[in-house]
Amino acid sequence: RNTENDSVQVEKAEQSQQWFDKIQLRGYAQLRYNRLFETNPQLQCDQCDKSWGENGGFFFRRIRMIFYGDIHERVYFYIQPDFASGGGNFAQIRDAYFDLGLDADQEFRLRIGQSKVPFGFENLQSSQNRIPLDRNDGLNSAVANERDIGLMLYYAPKKIRERFRYLVSSGLKGSGDYGVLALGLYNGQTANQPEKNNSMHAVTRATYPFELPSGQIIEGSLQGYTGKFVIERSTLTDNDQREFREFRYGPSVIVYPQPFGLQAEFNWGRGPEFNPETMNVEDKPIRGGYVLGSYYIEHGKNTYIPFTRYHYYNGGKKHEFDATKHRVKELELGVEWQPHSNFELVAMYTISDRTFENSLNPQNRQKGNLLRLQAQINF
Amino acid sequence: RNTENDSVQVEKAEQSQQWFDKIQLRGYAQLRYNRLFETNPQLQCDQCDKSWGENGGFFFRRIRMIFYGDIHERVYFYIQPDFASGGGNFAQIRDAYFDLGLDADQEFRLRIGQSKVPFGFENLQSSQNRIPLDRNDGLNSAVANERDIGLMLYYAPKKIRERFRYLVSSGLKGSGDYGVLALGLYNGQTANQPEKNNSMHAVTRATYPFELPSGQIIEGSLQGYTGKFVIERSTLTDNDQREFREFRYGPSVIVYPQPFGLQAEFNWGRGPEFNPETMNVEDKPIRGGYVLGSYYIEHGKNTYIPFTRYHYYNGGKKHEFDATKHRVKELELGVEWQPHSNFELVAMYTISDRTFENSLNPQNRQKGNLLRLQAQINF
Amino acid sequence: RNTENDSVQVEKAEQSQQWFDKIQLRGYAQLRYNRLFETNPQLQCDQCDKSWGENGGFFFRRIRMIFYGDIHERVYFYIQPDFASGGGNFAQIRDAYFDLGLDADQEFRLRIGQSKVPFGFENLQSSQNRIPLDRNDGLNSAVANERDIGLMLYYAPKKIRERFRYLVSSGLKGSGDYGVLALGLYNGQTANQPEKNNSMHAVTRATYPFELPSGQIIEGSLQGYTGKFVIERSTLTDNDQREFREFRYGPSVIVYPQPFGLQAEFNWGRGPEFNPETMNVEDKPIRGGYVLGSYYIEHGKNTYIPFTRYHYYNGGKKHEFDATKHRVKELELGVEWQPHSNFELVAMYTISDRTFENSLNPQNRQKGNLLRLQAQINF
After folding, report:
1. Exposed site from A16, A65, A162, C254, fewest CB < 10 Å?
2. What tens digit of pLDDT does each residue of C4-43 get?
3. Total of domains in chain C
4. Which of chain C's residues have a Cβ under 8 Å away from the Cβ of A100?
């Protein structure tokens, strides 16, 4: 008897040496359609979703495959290509990072490679978990594609690491574990872009998920970064400035949806912005943020999450041509339906007022409403 | 005893939760060489194989990796990148679709994402299974890369779904299961292309694989689609038309190779075509099709399939520059050799007469013969 | 009892049919930083590492995923995309080859597809195993990215195939098994480039890893190739030559690090090279090579490998614009640290004198020193 049990265990131990035990694969995909009840086809948002407005149609916003695993007691790897990139559904890296545990419990971790810059809860939260279809312009304009390449140091006590894990695995749509304290150095030109100057960006963040006696979890954060960014702009003469200093800072508050959720973030700073009056790019102030309310309803095997978000942004977008000037006010009302863990459907009515101006289009304010639809598959 | 059996079963049940049980991987690759016994290096076919003719050499026509699986009792996913794309062996999506079963037997399935447009048997049949090296111009010009993005509804009775599966697994080179009835809405600009207008394409197809008392299976189909397509063309003035209405329809007949196979398809329609006399792109009639004969010979572990195909096309190719005018007559004689299920070799002698004319090359008729070779690996 | 053993074995046998037993996955990634103690930001090497010098920063040199396996008793497949390609971390094929065993022991193997051209030990050795950060200019300029598409025939006796395997698995940083005799035909325009003429390249190589009675292994090789290469160049007039004949040949000697290692290679030949005096591309002689010394120190679980390399190149680089003229002298001193098999850190001080001149920059000699750092993850 024991012999056989042993043989089974030996077999199991042998299996634990197999590649498929060390390397795992999962993924998700998001298919969109944005043209129902559209009142203004010129209303668009390039950073949000390239299929908004005129000539849009069915569109894959994301096709993600995530290869990951604990390959050593102190080394974790995470490589996430997106297969809906490059304008023609090419495969391009989003994350490619490696965590080196500095202590046995991995309370201190050094993350090397391309990964999310710890600035803003919604930026850190996976798009697989976010309720509104796109991130808010206010904080997402800080780091296009949320990621950069460099070194990040994270610290979190073991107990809080477990709490971060629970906030994701429970369906409460947490951000994942980016430490309670974070400190990073990175190129600063955003994900998959070559570095364009000789200086680095620096970022820091402090966050803490408090658990009330009722079980309700509330997370508060403070974060900031600074660096020099090189923009792309028109009419490059010897006098035109391309490198601009930028910085941002701000707080986040998350009341996790148990069952009523409330989420608010804001940031202030300075950075490059196109000025349509001077037709030049200038150093300007930045401010923006949002507030999101949601309510979780379990009904049989189904989960329904009605939600609303208001967000606002006044500033340039450094990663767009001429550091395009943006003035955004947007109200969203929607519902997410999860019949099971492998499929989600979101319908979201958007009432929007967007100004986006650069030298190619220096007078461009667009208002309008539309219904946005997304089917998401998790595998 | 029972305890141990249980423990084995428990272990097995646990394993069925593992990622590698839900997600599977397979693939195939095709390496070509087209320069033997070539009589005319100007004879080329861009849609078929970019290594035909002048300056061609060894060439990967396809390197496919297919990630797929039943991730839920009613959800199936299928993501197929090609690693021989983008002109430099980049990874680009071919399929990325998700089947949502609408009933317990999944007789009704809603397919969302990028997948094959159900128009034509040879278009739907995998290149892994097709005998001639390239699809016929007549029906393949309807949907370049065979795919588009949108929603497809498929219906097939359980019994016929099993028959469709058998037609592939048995080596009879079936098309796979695209329903006996199909109905779809899609962007219409073909795979991996952004939508370029505000209207959708619609497609429908009916097919049925009849099984005779002898066991011989014969499949008959009818299919059609319509929509508006936006072409790329030269000298764009305000008067130049870019959007053209197009439609096509036609029948398919397949006598499965048990051991003698016969396959014939044809389609008629209208669409844009370059006119070298007016140097303009005009709405023109389309017609084209083919007939293919094959014979299966089993010899020990080897399978040999001698085959011949004649195909013909009169029309424009909407996805080529200026909707290039095509006049194609081609006769192929070849043999496929399968020493085992992981390797196939095809040699095919091609006698061709191809006219392909646009504003860059308005006088271009090329005739010639060549031997074409392909090694295929299935993994 | 036996029943149960059988059931376990049956289960095991069934498992051996699973996709994850036939297909395996592994990979590695290299993150670089080259800006410490840099004395000349104009000192750069495009073929080595695009993040050298002015405006460089953190940089992924390689992100490799390798799908491979014995899919049949005589068929092996190997598909290796790199996810740090195309200028924006896109996925692009490095290897995509298939070995067909011609005899039961696979002493004779036909390799079809894109794979390494058997010219030079360091070229064949994986970057995962190489000690210096980049390959030497002298031999690596023969085949950019080391690979091409075509047919390779390899022969090695069973016993030597085992020795080649041991030289990698033991950590002695062998080249892998490219046969003791190799013969190949390939396009000649290097990896992922379309063929540009109507002639093939031919390569041959003989190598043998002698094992001394002491256990010390010494490998000696001779290799050569010839063909016609089409360069990219400026001011293309009807008189400008684009196709050039080229050939190279040379020896390699490797004393494996047991614990002291010595490695030397050299090659001579002719090929295209930009001449800054005539501002034309001309047929010129080529010579280049290197000598590398290393010493293996095991200390607890750690391995330390101090090393030094001097390398030298006089010739054009055919794959660069105008077949850029190169004059390279470089001395490197460094150490590789492996705390365990999943992580490696290399620090390398480089003393360099590089001339790289073409029509865009016909006067360009750069001297300088810098410290180069690399973190490598193996998964």
Report:
1. A16
2. 444 444 444 444 579 999 999 999 999 999 999 999 999 9
3. 1
4. 343
Within a 13 Å sphere around the CA of A165, how many CA atoms are in the beta-carbon half? 7
Q: What pLDDT is recorded for position B2?
A: 44
Q: Which residue on chain A is closest to B93 by alpha carbon?
A: A89
Residues of A with CB under 8 A from a CB of B: 1, 4-5, 8, 12, 20, 24-27, 29, 31, 35, 41, 50-51, 54-60, 63, 65, 81, 83-84, 87-91, 340-343, 375, 377-379
* Cβ atoms of A375 and A345 closer than 8 Å: yes
Residue A295 burial (10 A CB sphere; 0-12, 13-18, 19+): middle
Q: Residues near C300 by Cβ (< 8 Å), separated by ≥ 6?
A: none
For A49, left (φ over 0), alpha (ψ -120 to 50), or beta?
A: beta
Q: Which residue of B has its CA nearest to C9?
A: B8
Average the pLDDT over C302-318 and give the result: 98
CA nearest B96 in A: which residue?
A63
What residue in A sits closest to C8 (Cα-Cα)?
A: A8
Q: Which chains touch B (3 or more CB pairs under 8 A)?
A: A, C
Distance from CA of C88 to the nearest CA of B (A): 12
Of A192, A197, A243, which to mutate for an interface test with C (greatest number of C Cβ within 10 Å)? A192
ipTM over 0.85: yes
Q: Is residue C140 part of a domain?
A: yes
Helix (H, G, I), strand (E, B) or coil at A285: strand
CB contacts of C378 in chain A (<8 Å) are: 71
Q: Quick check: is C26 in a domain?
A: no
Range of the structural domain that residue B261 is part of: 24-378
- What is the tens place of the pLDDT at every residue in C261-277? 999 999 999 999 999 99
pLDDT, position A5: 44
Q: What are the tens digits of pLDDT across the range A305-335? A: 999 999 999 999 999 999 999 999 999 999 9
The dihedral over CA atoms of B10, B14, B20, B24, expressed in degrees to the nearest 10, equals 60
Judge whether C351 lies within some domain: yes
In a domain, C276, yes or no: yes
- B149 to chain A: which residues are within 8 Å by CB? 31, 57-60
